[in-house]
Each structure stands twice: as structure tokens, then as C-alpha cells.
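chain below, 206 aa
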Amino acid sequence: MKVDRQRIVEVALDLLNEKGVDGLTTRLIADRLGVQQPALYWHFKNKRALLDAMNVEILARGHTHRGPAAGEDWRTYLRENARSFRRALLAYRDGARVHAGTEADPGDLDQVEAQLAFLVADTGVSATRAMELLVAVSHYVVGCVLEEQADAPESPGRGAELDAAAQGHPLLAEALAHYRGAGHARLFEAGLALLIDGAAAQIAAR
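prediction:
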């Protein structure tokens, strides 16, 4: 039985949700496809190459706000782009781990060029600075999703020892209570605002 590249990626993504990235093996993929492992190596020379292709597919399916919409300024665009990126990674178990370490797909270079052109035109910064801003936002999103997807399931008493110890530190106790109650989405938005507002202040100072 012959399998094509796209079918391998689809099955790999299904298994990713079932097993996680650590449990994903070429043997499992081959078994699910009903082929021998060497058949996969015609399309992917190793697991990293397969993960790169899976990342491309994850983003193609879920990252819907890659470019600026009509009328968006750079701040709005970066916020919506980051939110879209986060949703795409969260749609798959260990999505952030699959993405971490990848580079832009060569097929996306026109899109990246357009992103840089938009930021340069709207902010007046150099292309180098615009790339630093894009990378900073991207790394922030990946880091947040890594933490969110690594968060252990809630269990009775989890965090109780730390919370009790923090009661002797009033500022920490207040901040920790907020952290516990805010949830990942609200904390993500708070940090994203700090990042973009900080960038805006730097740009204005120039």
C-alpha cells in the first residue's frame, strides 16, 4: 500500500492527540497506515522532518490571522496574530512542542515579507527591528502555550503548600491569588498587552 505525504501528516496529527509528542513514533504511524516503516522515509528522512511538516499543517488549519486585516494598525494586528497563533497551537496536544525549534516554511516567505513591509510602513522601524518584534511575539506565544499544555491536571490540594507559605508575604499572597484565579487566557492577554505596549513606548520614543 502506497501512502502520500499528506496522509502521513494527517495520521501523525491524529496520533499526536492520542499519544503526545513523546509517544509519537514512526512505528505507530506506520502501523496505523498499514505500511512498513521504511515507506515513511521516502517522504520524511527523520522524526524532526515529520514534526516540521506537522507544524506547517497545524498552522495551515488553525492560524487564520497571519496577515493584517483591512484597517488594522500594527498593535491590533500583532494582538490578533498572537491570539490566532495561540489558538492554532492549543488545538493539538503538545502543539507548542511540535512548533518549538522550527523555522518559517519556505512557502511562507511571501507572507513574512508582507508582515515586515506592513510593520515597517506602520511603525517607521527598520526591517531588522520589525523582525525582532515578530520574533518576540512568536516566542511569547510559544512559551505561554508550552506552560499551558504542560500544566498538570488539577488535583485536590495542588498548590496548597505554596499558597499557605505565601500567607506570610502579603504582596506575594495577593499576587498569587490573582495568578491562581486568572487562568491561562487572561494571563496571556495581560502579558501580550505588556509586550505590545512596551514596543509602542519604544517606537514613540524614537
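Residues 68-205 form a domain with the Tetracycline Repressor; domain 2 fold (CATH 1.10.357.10). The chain has ten helices and no strands.
thats it, cya
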